[in-house]
């Protein structure tokens, strides 16, 4: 039987990798993003997830007629600028929250009202949600709030398993900014990322997608709503190092 997945943010990076990998595994993949997705097999809708008046129509057109979804990955997200939080404009903080938190609430509300069976929802979080590294301001706050969103919606999605998953570091456009532009002297956590780039610690989008798909079943064995760092499952030593244990 065909397995259906819905992924947000499939035009680039991890979402694109997931769409490609699941397509290779014969899933039927539905995705959305503001830019087009270059994978011909993906059923795609162009939409801005923060345009809350247009979003329901876009979701209805894309997945409204499906009988059920086996997997939803709420992946779309932005990094914002790495800088001191004390000098970050309020408007920048709000913009990051809008896509990383509130757009996910809008999608979850639509899925909840849709009411058809959804086996598993994975909300893409980050280690930044708990690390509190200097410079990660709006992004860290947004992912921390996303983790709580997963916990709260777990109460209301009967029959659906939800997790907030930190996917580890991935070589995407988001990493271009972290590795090429932001100031590693002012923000020391950047050094670890720069050292990891080009090594197996930082896979590309397709490699990261394969890892995520490999842990889907083990996520479902944990309580719904939980935050899980993929390194806790696949690379416990690295995870301990990251958290200074
Ligand atoms: N890269 C890493 O090392 C890393 C680590 C931990 C967590 N993550 C998380 O992984 C997720 C994917 O990040 P990535 O690294 O793959 O970044 P990316 O290459 O910049 O991809 C972000 C995706 O989100 C979509 N998106 C952004 N704003 C949107 C909006 N308003 N409406 C619809 N789609 C929107 C983008 O599509 P359009 O621009 O076409 O709209 C794009 O497809 C994010 O949630 C990020 O926080 C990444």
Could you characterize the architecture of this molecule?
Helix 1 (13-24) crosses helix 8 and helix 3 packs parallel to helix 5. This protein has helices spanning 13-24, 55-63, 90-114, 128-131, 137-154, 173-180, 189-196, 205-220, 230-234, 236-242, and strands spanning 4-8, 28-33, 43-46, 69-74, 118-124, 161-166, 226-229. The protein is built from ten helices and seven strands. The protein is globular, with a radius of gyration of 17 Å. Helix content is 46%, strand content 16%. It is α/β, with parallel strands linked by helices. A seven-stranded parallel beta sheet has the order 3-2-1-4-5-6-7, with helices on both faces. The protein has a single domain, classed as Rossmann fold. 39% of the residues are buried. It binds NADP nicotinamide-adenine-dinucleotide phosphate. Residues 9-15, 33-35, 48-50, 75-78, 99, 124, 126, 167, 169-170, 172-175 line the site of NADP nicotinamide-adenine-dinucleotide phosphate (NAP).
List the helices and strands and how they pair.
Blueprint: E1 4-8, H1 13-24, E2 28-33, E3 43-46, H2 55-63, E4 69-74, H3 90-114, E5 118-124, H4 128-131, H5 137-154, E6 161-166, H6 173-180, H7 189-196, H8 205-220, E7 226-229, H9 230-234, H10 236-242
Helix pairs in contact: 1-8, 3-5
NADP nicotinamide-adenine-dinucleotide phosphate (NAP) is lined by residues 9-15, 33-35, 48-50, 75-78, 99, 124, 126, 167, 169-170, 172-175.
């Amino acid at each position: 039987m065909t397995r259906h997945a819905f992924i947000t943010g499939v035009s680039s990076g991890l979402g694109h990798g997931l769409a490609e990998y699941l397509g290779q595994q014969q899933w039927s993949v539905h995705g959305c993003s503001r830019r087009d997705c270059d994978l011909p097999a993906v059923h795609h809708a162009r939409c801005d997830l923060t345009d809350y008046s247009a979003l329901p129509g876009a979701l209805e057109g894309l997945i409204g007629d499906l009988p059920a979804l086996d997997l939803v990955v709420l992946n779309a997200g932005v990094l914002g600028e790495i800088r001191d939080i004390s000098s970050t404009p309020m408007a920048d903080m709000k913009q990051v929250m809008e896509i990383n938190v509130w757009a996910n609430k809008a999608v979850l509300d639509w899925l909840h009202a849709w009411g058809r069976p959804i086996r598993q929802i994975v909300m893409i979080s980050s280690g930044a949600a708990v690390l509190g590294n200097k410079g990660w301001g709006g992004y860290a706050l947004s992912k921390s709030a996303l983790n709580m969103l997963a916990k709260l919606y777990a109460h209301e999605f009967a029959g659906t398993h939800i997790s907030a998953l930190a996917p580890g570091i991935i070589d995407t456009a988001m990493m271009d900014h972290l590795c090429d532009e932001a100031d590693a002297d002012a923000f020391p956590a950047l050094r670890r990322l720069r050292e990891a780039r080009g090594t197996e610690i930082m896979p590309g989008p397709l490699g990261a997608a394969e890892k995520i798909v490999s842990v889907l079943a083990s996520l479902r064995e944990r309580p719904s709503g939980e935050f899980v760092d993929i390194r806790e499952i696949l690379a416990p030593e690295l995870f301990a190092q990251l958290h200074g244990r």
